[in-house]
Amino acid sequence: MPELPEVEVVRLGLAQAVASSRVVAAEVRDPRAVKRHVAGAADFEARIVGVELLEPARRGKFLWIPTGGGAEALLAHLGMSGQLLLRTHEAPEDRHVRVRLWLETAHHGELRLDFADQRLFGSLALDSMSDGVPRQAAHIARDPLDPLFDDEAFLRALRTRSAAVKKLLLDQNLISGVGNIYADEALWLARVHPETPGCEVSAIKARRLLEAVRSVFLKALAEGGTSFDRLYVNVNGESGYFAHSLNAYGRGGEPCPRCGTPIRRISFMNRSSHFCPRCQRR
Ligand SMILES: [Zn+2]
């Protein structure tokens, strides 16, 4: 499942090629891949052709490209396995391409922008903008790398709830962009047990946790790079895009890099949590 660093890497890569391009043709191969476009596949195809694409933006797992004039945006929700793939004219076919847009770009000639999605939880849409955000993404909280993210409001919300702190980190209405992988990493870095109720996290630890979220995001972004080539890498955090640098996630049974105690894996919301039982005590 893509988390903030993966979505941001895609956004940066797209920005270099897509900004100021024009959609010259569109092909919806599977109407389920535009289910968020309520007027349907034919309407999507008809309306996207001819539009100018501007600088891409993101919030949580939503990524969007405002169109000429800025009143609308081409919106992508990446779901579990959605990918936006930028390909040259003659590049071989990828698997699971559901929507193809042909772009005339300023610096890279004609490119294909393919929306590939194996499991079809993702979707494209043309959506109207409200206050700089597509309507479908309006309910998603800002992410902690957003300059307008409100630290105090988040810390207050975290420390007044009885839900497990990890569940609160995954709540897209409180903070966006954090999924299972970076939640485990941030909790490990801040030495907080994932099942600690939010209201039992001290003010100092809560602040340390928010800093840890930012720190793991920035580290992943630095390793992900921002080159055009990166778009050719699959955007799928679960398969370990940044796995080489993880301290806790996916390392059950391996020694904690800080103290050597074996990392413990427990089940959590139909998935799993990884933590150090020594460094992260309740
Ligand atoms: Zn440890």
Q: Your description of this structure?
A:
- This protein is an alpha+beta fold and 282 residues long.
- The protein has two domains: 134 residues, MutM-like, N-terminal (N-terminal domain of MutM-like DNA repair proteins, Alpha-Beta Barrel), CATH 3.20.190; 125 residues, Helicase, Ruva Protein, domain 3 (Orthogonal Bundle), CATH 1.10.8.50.
- 25% of the residues lie in helices and 24% in strands.
- The strands form three sheets. It has a five-stranded antiparallel β-sheet.
- A hairpin with a 2-residue loop joins strand 11 and strand 12.
- It starts with a helix and ends in a 7-residue tail after the last strand.
Count, helices: 6
Specify the CATH architecture of the largest domain: Alpha-Beta Barrel
Give the structural class.
alpha+beta
Distance between the ends: 28 Å
List the ligand species: zinc ion
CATH fold type of the largest domain:
N-terminal domain of MutM-like DNA repair proteins
Radius of gyration: 20 Å
What are the secondary-structure elements, in order, as H or E? HEHEEEEEEEEEHHHHEE
Largest sheet descriptor? 5 strands, antiparallel
Low-confidence stretches: 225-241
Strand content: 15-25%
CATH-level-4 superfamily name of the largest domain: MutM-like, N-terminal
Whole-number count of domains: 2
